[in-house]
Amino acid sequence: MGNPLAHCAPKGPMSTRSCSTGPGLYFLLAGALASPALAQVQWRSPVAPHFAPKDAQLLTARLQQTGATPHLAIQLSRAPRESDRADLAAAGVTLGAPLGGHAFFAAIDNSRIDWKSPAVVALITGVQAIDPQWKLHPAFGEDDDAAWTVVGTVDGAAGKPEPVIAACVLFHADVANNAEAAAVIEQLGGRIQSTLSTVNGVVVELPRAAAVALAAEDIIQWIEPALPLLTPTNSDNRILTRANQVQAAPYNLNGAGVTALVFDGGGVRTTHQDLAGRATIID
């Protein structure tokens, strides 16, 4: 469940903000380790859901009412092989992000779902509707916003100012990060500042009160506050990396003749005084 990214640095006006990630879905679950009980997942949220045994008739009725492709949390009897994933997809169940303990987010294709297929019967042991609160970082349950996340205010209820915050929003893996997804954010008063293609997400500015409503949208997987802005000079980082030491005598290094590959969730700021004319963005 490793994740190749330690930080997801967005592009654009908020280029010095980032979204934390870590092993598996660290930003989503605190470790997401398998629990002693197969039908329970350790969630980062204070809610501890239990997977209800699948009821084909009940679930099919629910899906038909939605008329869309909803997302559910499902529990499997074991870790799925590639062939298992293909069999489930053929039955209308596409596995998404892992939640630990053989549990996954899953996209359900209402037009093709077959809860009686051999793959579904053999593999799925429980199904749970996704509570919007699971999608919210614990900071959204507190009234004390970190200073760095507040980027402005808007008129809220009864004319009281409502803080506008910077946040990272991830979509489910099967959701296209496009204008349609952006419209969901914009209709709640949000504005996209940057796209995080690697993790299928965006950096947004939106009224804090809208975060709860955004989490209730089916396409949303996770919302968390953006990380603090970096200092203009990053002086502490120069000390930690000993940049000053290698640039001074007797080394006198300045990067000339060295080609470096930087893989990150965003783009390099090519206008930086140390990178102008030297950086090439490939992805």
What does this structure look like?
The protein has 283 residues and is of the alpha+beta class. Helices cover 18% and strands 23% of the residues. It has seven helices and eleven strands. It has helices at residues 56-66, 82-90, 118-123, 179-186, 210-215, 235-241, 243-247; strands at residues 7-8, 19-20, 71-76, 93-100, 103-108, 124-129, 150-155, 161-171, 191-196, 201-207, 220-225. The strands form three sheets. Strands 7, 8, 9, 10 and 11 form a five-stranded antiparallel beta sheet that branches. The protein is globular. The model is unreliable at 1-16 and 21-42 (pLDDT under 50).
Quaternary state of this entry equals single chain
- Biggest sheet details: 5 strands, antiparallel
Radius of gyration (Å)? 22 Å
Poorly predicted residue ranges? 1-16, 21-42
Number of strands: 11
Helix content: 10-25%
Q: Spell out the helices and strands N to C.
A: EEHEHEEHEEEHEEHEHH
Task: Tell me what portion of residues adopts beta-strand conformation.
Answer: 15-25%
Please, how many helices? 7
- How would you describe the shape? globular
State the secondary-structure class.
alpha+beta
How would you state the average pLDDT, rounded?
77
Span between termini: 24 Å
